[in-house]
Write a structure and sequence with these properties.
The complex is a heterotrimer of chains A (529), B (315) and C (270).
Chain A: E1 4-13, E2 16-26, E3 31-35, H1 42-50, E4 57-65, E5 68-69, H2 75-81, E6 86-89, H3 103-115, H4 119-132, H5 151-163, E7 169-173, H6 181-198, E8 201-206, H7 209-215, E9 218-223, E10 226-232, H8 233-239, H9 243-252, E11 266-277, E12 281-282, E13 286-287, E14 291-302, E15 306-310, H10 317-324, E16 332-337, E17 340-341, H11 349-353, E18 355-358, H12 372-376, H13 389-402, H14 419-431, E19 437-441, H15 449-466, E20 469-474, H16 477-483, E21 486-491, E22 494-500, H17 501-506, H18 511-519
Parallel strand pairs in A: 3-8, 3-9, 6-7, 7-8, 15-20, 15-21, 18-19, 19-20
Antiparallel strand pairs in A: 1-2, 1-4, 4-5, 9-10, 11-14, 11-16, 12-13, 16-17, 21-22
Helix pairs in contact in A: 3-4, 3-5, 4-5, 5-6, 6-18, 9-15, 13-14
Chain B: H1 2-28, H2 34-39, H3 45-55, H4 61-73, H5 87-122, H6 127-141, H7 144-158, H8 174-208, H9 211-218, H10 223-261, H11 266-275, H12 279-307, H13 309-313
Chain C: H1 2-21, H2 56-91, H3 96-109, H4 113-124, H5 128-155, H6 158-165, H7 170-206, H8 218-225, H9 234-261, H10 263-269
Helix pairs in contact in C: 1-2, 1-9, 2-3, 2-5, 2-7, 3-5, 4-5, 5-7, 7-8, 7-9, 8-9
The chains are: A alpha/beta (529), B mainly alpha (315), C mainly alpha (270).
Chain lengths: 529, 315, 270
């Protein structure tokens, strides 16, 4: 018997179709994983169940929860369902809590609202719920404010709010996307435990196949507002009846073809790099101890090599990256590119020209006011005699074609391109002055899996054609594994493990690497056929 | 919280010190000799010299600055060049009209703007909202002293509910005083209330789009409950900034409005002093008003910390 | 869009009137004509005459000239000084320069335009120039803050990092990348400060700190009308409504421009 039964759910917002004939079932005590790329309508499905769609939405079809037809409920009756019978967890824990209210007040609000508990009783219950989600008493008093908690801890508070009334259904919309892998594993385990203990049903919405395969009992795969395939997880992954499921699966585990790297000539040398930030001010004169973001890091990157740098947020990899790009001064050690020193504010033009970068955000990486030709040629600034006129046009065309775009795209504005295309333009911009090293700073992290697979192929192809080296920085171990020859694992400002990628992944020696790998969700190996 | 308060207080003192230097220097560059001016062209050089000594004008600028500042700290603002009476007494009498007027207007402005802004945000896109947008757009465009004149024509000249101007003095009773300040306060408050209501509205609408509002809705709160329990307090942060800024506008506005209602406040004092080149009075009044503005900025900073827990701990 | 057109038309009427007043006005604003004093609106004097018999249409036209000139130059001063200061503060975020600029801003904020005008008048005597300087100084921190705030968020964007990796200096990035991206915001703020300038100029000339006789100005027309308000209300209504309509037009224009230029609003509509 299913707890939640969605039938023929069709939604349009201001006339734009968002969902088409979506049907889903969630059974008590089971987790339904809803998978889809951005724009597939997975979040809108969740909001439809909660009846929290943006204004202008037209809905048809039925949503039944435990026999009640929610789609027929008045707003007033629906309010009694939200929070009490259905709890919801959102993607962004940093903004999901009211910054001005204590966590105790926010959790007890759910209880006071639905059960009319006295403030004292509600707080006592809130205490129990927070204990239950892993925020025990002495360390996490009810009087804490959200800004005093980490992202993972905030997500636990949001979960506490959602399950405080022991709802029948829990909807979690990308609950771990903004979190580090180890935190992600803990939050997923917590959701699993709560589902098992309370016998509630749960919908886990995610873009990550591996996450779903680890915790979900059932899956539904969505594309462009439709459910293309659904069923028990093991069965769906074993057969993959729908081609889209297969494409998604292949892209998630895609391994670009790359010849193994040979040679041992160092290109980038980092020796004992230290970056300290002054501690925050205490009173008028005192200062806290300085914060050491990068603490004596040394490594070499060889000519033609793809080197990975992995670590969780706050480990210092961003600071290190900025230092390598010459944007951040060092307090100790040195960085050199082919012998030329890299010092913030004093990098020689020649060294700059050999070092380029591609960032994570395909939307923020370009000045929205310039055309592609101007965007792509920005590094020409580093050449003594940059090509002009026809030579410049040829260079732009070559760079665009190298990344799979057309020469005619040069005249367009950046807003005319999709996220994946923008990332190609970012690579073209890095490529145009023929650098030796490209730093890829989470360069594929914001992309959907299929686009990501294409960009990884492109990167692998370019290494060979242009004899490029990459420094590939990512929090995603799978991606690093697929594109790098060697890998560095960073934790609290230090490199804790270093070695050939396959060796490190197969036999991690440092405890931290092992815990990272253990926390990383893995795709099931695909059944033959 | 205490550390935050002390830091803001320290920054307030620095602002005050720099402001006093700026004001002193501005007055310092005035051409001509006040003593000569006061005594007229026929005064003998000896008399002028004696007066200069009496006023302390023969000393070095640094010395005079120090005695001006230390004097003010003791409540001694010097002697008026023209009236030959202590400036402190003159200013104090006038201050008891200008300051209550500005505060009265601030209270009115807030009392009008809050409900109007909240109502418009709660019913965004409705007729009420459109009405508020239109009315406030007009309210912002009206110069307060012109609005004051219209109020005088309607309520004083035609209806006779209020007197057209003048002030009975607080000794005539609190109520009579408040009544005399009511028309000027309304004239001052309505344009500011229009601005504040718009800020309140847009701050609330912005806040209602935040993620935590969606979280609260998912708990089962109604739109109205979310607005009162979660959005309002968050929207207060930008609103406080504007209230702080408005005080200085209201103070300046009060000085102008006093002319419409013939109120014997700081405004009339300072314009008479400018006409009579009574620079020490100008200097003192300006310093006092700047002090009031800086003090209000400090109070607004404290109010931020009261609203926002993030400010209490960290900085 | 409707707001932009309506506001633009309102403002344009006064700007045109001010421009025309340089070459032609219906009557002479300096000549005294006691025979025709205090004429009510209508007939050969569409808006009536004042206590010297001067035609109010002409007075309003010439008054618009003063108001617009003062407010416009004050916006120019505010932008000319405030924008570079804001860009510099953002480019050197957290440095002593940033600190000095921001503290300086706070200090100027403590002096409302009226107090600056009082100080200047006490020193140099009243004139339209005082009003320009006082309102201009008051505008500087406004533009500095708006510029710095917008620039700070741009400096963290990746396209700025990309430009830095391309070896471009702070000044070049500020001019090439930051300024064009804050321009929209500055245009909107400029419109708002323009309308505030009109109001401030009226207030200053009302208390005698602005343009001096015989130059007509809206604020002083109101001051002169005050004593005659019970028997010649049109003397107060005409310049008062002129101010309201001009300011309203500019504000509507500002709102319209913001909707038109703000990419967030534009995207939401598309």
């Amino acid at each position: 018997m299913s707890l939640l039964r969605v039938r023929g759910l069709t939604v349009a917002i201001h006339g734009t179709p968002i969902l088409r004939e979506v049907s889903l079932d969630v059974a008590p005590g089971r987790i339904l994983g809803v998978i889809g790329e951005s724009g597939s309508g997975k979040s809108m499905t969740a909001l439809s169940v909660m009846r929290l769609l943006p204004s202008g939405a037209e809905v048809s079809g039925t949503v039944r929860l435990d026999g009640q037809v929610l789609t027929d409920f008045s707003e007033r009756r629906m309010r009694a369902v939200r929070g009490a019978q259905v709890g919801m967890v959102f993607q962004e824990p940093m903004t999901a809590l009211n910054p001005l209210q204590t966590i105790g007040d926010q959790v007890s609000e759910t209880l006071r609202l639905h059960d009319g508990l006295s403030p004292r009783l509600a707080r006592a219950r809130a205490r129990e719920v927070l204990d239950r989600v892993g925020l025990p008493d002495p360390e996490f008093p009810l009087g804490r404010y959200p800004h005093e908690l980490s992202g993972g801890q905030r997500q636990r508070v949001v979960i506490a709010m959602a399950i405080a009334r022991r709802p029948k259904l829990l909807i979690a919309d990308e609950p771990t996307t903004a979190l580090d892998v180890t935190t992600q594993a803990q939050i997923l385990a917590l959701i699993r435990r709560l589902v098992d203990e309370d016998g509630m049903g749960a919908i886990l919405i995610t873009h990550d196949l591996a996450v779903v395969s680890g915790v979900a009992d059932d899956v539904a795969i969505m594309r462009a507002g439709e459910v293309v395939e659904a069923g028990p997880t093991a069965e769906v992954f074993a057969h993959m009846r729908h081609p889209y499921t297969r494409a998604l699966f292949d892209a998630s585990g895609h391994h670009p073809d790359r010849p193994p790297h040979e040679g041992d000539v160092p290109l980038l040398q980092v020796e004992g790099a230290v970056r300290r930030y002054p501690g925050r001010r205490l009173g008028l004169w005192g200062r806290a101890a300085p914060k050491v973001a990068v603490d004596g890091v040394s490594f070499n990157l060889r000519h033609g090599e793809n080197l990975g740098l992995v670590g969780e947020s706050g480990c210092g990899k961003s600071t290190l990256t900025r230092a390598i790009l010459g944007l951040e001064p060092l307090q100790g050690g040195r960085i050199a590119l082919d012998g030329a020193p890299i010092v913030a504010g004093a990098v020689s033009v020649a060294a700059r020209a050999r070092l380029q970068v591609v960032f994570q955000d395909p939307y923020g990486s370009f000045n929205p006011r310039h055309r592609v030709a101007r965007l792509v040629t920005e590094p020409f600034h580093l050449l003594d005699r940059p090509p002009t006129g026809p030579a410049r046009d040829i260079a732009v065309a070559e760079a665009l074609e190298a990344v799979g775009l057309q020469a005619s795209d040069a005249r367009k504005h950046i807003h005319e391109f999709s996220g994946g295309q923008r990332q190609r333009i970012a690579i073209a911009r890095a490529l145009i002055i023929k650098p030796s090293l490209i730093v890829l700073d989470e360069a594929v992290s914001a992309l959907d899996v299929q686009v990501r697979a294409q960009i990884l192929d492109l990167l692998a192809d370019l290494t060979e054609r242009y004899r490029l080296s990459y420094l590939f920085i990512s929090h995603d171990l799978h991606v690093v594994r697929r594109i790098t020859d060697r890998v560095l694992v960073m934790k609290e400002g230090r490199i804790v493990e270093e070695g050939p990628t396959e060796a490190v992944f197969a036999n991690p020696t440092h405890a931290y690497t092992r815990s990272l790998l253990a926390a990383t969700p893995v795709l099931p190996t695909r059944a033959a056929g | 919280m205490l550390r935050y308060g002390l830091r803001r207080a320290a920054s307030m003192l620095v602002s005050l010190a720099v402001a006093s230097v700026v004001i002193f220097c501005a007055i310092e560059v005035v051409p001509g000799d006040p003593a000569q001016y006061m005594l007229g062209l026929n005064a003998s050089p000896d008399t002028v010299a004696a007066l200069r000594a009496e006023l302390g004008l023969d000393q070095q600028p640094v010395t005079r600055y120090m005695s001006w500042i230390t004097g003010m700290l003791r409540g001694d603002f010097g002697i008026s060049y023209t009236y030959r009476t202590p400036v402190a007494q003159m200013v104090a009498d006038r201050l008891w009209i200008s300051l209550p007027l500005a505060l009265y207007a601030l209270i009115l402005s807030t009392a009008i703007a809050f409900p109007v802004g909240i109502m418009a945000a709660a019913r965004r896109g409705s007729v009420v909202d459109m009405g508020v947008i239109g009315a406030t757009q007009l309210g912002i465009a009206v110069p307060n002293f012109w609005f004051a004149m219209i109020l005088v024509v309607i309520f004083a000249i035609n209806l006779g509910w209020f007197s057209a101007g003048g002030f009975p003095g607080w000794e005539g009773g609190l109520l009579a005083g408040i009544k005399a300040l009511t028309l000027p306060a309304i004239a001052l408050a309505l344009p500011q209330a229009s601005i504040l209501a718009r800020v309140m509205r847009s701050a609330l609408i912005d806040t209602l789009g935040e993620d935590f509002v969606r979280t609260a809705r998912a708990k089962g709160l109604s739109r109205r409950q979310v607005l009162w329990r979660h959005a309002l307090r968050n929207a207060l942060i930008p609103v406080l900034t504007i209230i702080g800024l408005q005080f200085s506008f209201l103070l300046a506005g009060a000085i102008i409005i006093e002319n419409v209602f013939y109120l014997p406040g700081l405004g009339r004092l300072v314009f008479q002093a400018i006409a009579a080149r009574d620079l020490i009075v100008v200097e003192s009044v300006v310093m006092l008003l700047v002090f009031a503005v800086i003090l209000v900025t400090f109070l607004v900073d404290l109010a931020y910390a009261w609203v926002d827990p993030r400010l209490r701990g960290a900085r | 869009m409707r707001a932009l057109v309506l506001g633009g038309l309102l403002a344009a009427v006064f700007v045109a009137a001010a421009a025309v007043s340089f070459v032609w006005t219906p009557g002479d604003v300096t000549a005294v004509d006691i025979a025709n004093r205090l004429q009510p609106p209508g007939g050969s004097y569409p808006l009536g005459t004042d206590h010297f018999g001067r035609d109010l249409v002409s007075m309003v036209m010439v008054g618009a000239r003063v108001s617009i000139a003062v407010a416009l130059v004050a916006v120019g001063i505010g932008m000319g000084l405030g924008v570079p200061l804001g860009l510099a503060a953002a480019a050197t975020r957290g440095s002593w320069l940033d600190e000095v600029i921001m503290r300086g801003n706070d200090l100027v904020f403590a002096f409302p335009a009226l107090l600056i005008a009082i100080l200047i008048t006490a020193v140099f005597g009243p004139s339209a120039l005082n009003a320009i300087i006082a309102i201009g100084i008051f505008n500087v921190p406004v533009f500095a803050r708006v510029t710095r705030g917008a620039a700070l968020s741009l400096w963290t964007r990746e396209f700025i990092l990309a430009a830095r990796v391309a070896g471009k200096g702070r000044i070049r990035i500020s001019v090439e990348h930051i300024l064009p991206n804050v321009a929209n915001l500055l245009i909107v703020q400029g419109t708002i400060q323009f309308s505030l300038g009109i109001l401030a100029e009226a207030g200053l000339s009302y208390v005698g700190l602005g343009a001096q006789p015989p130059t007509p100005s809206w604020g002083r027309m109101l001051a002169e009308a005050q004593t005659m308000i019970s028997f010649a209300p049109h003397l107060a209504l005409v310049p008062g409504l002129s101010i309201v309509l001009m300011v309203l037009g500019l504000n509507l224009m500002g709102d319209g421009l913001r909707d038109l230029l703000d990419p967030r609003v534009r995207k939401a509509r598309a």
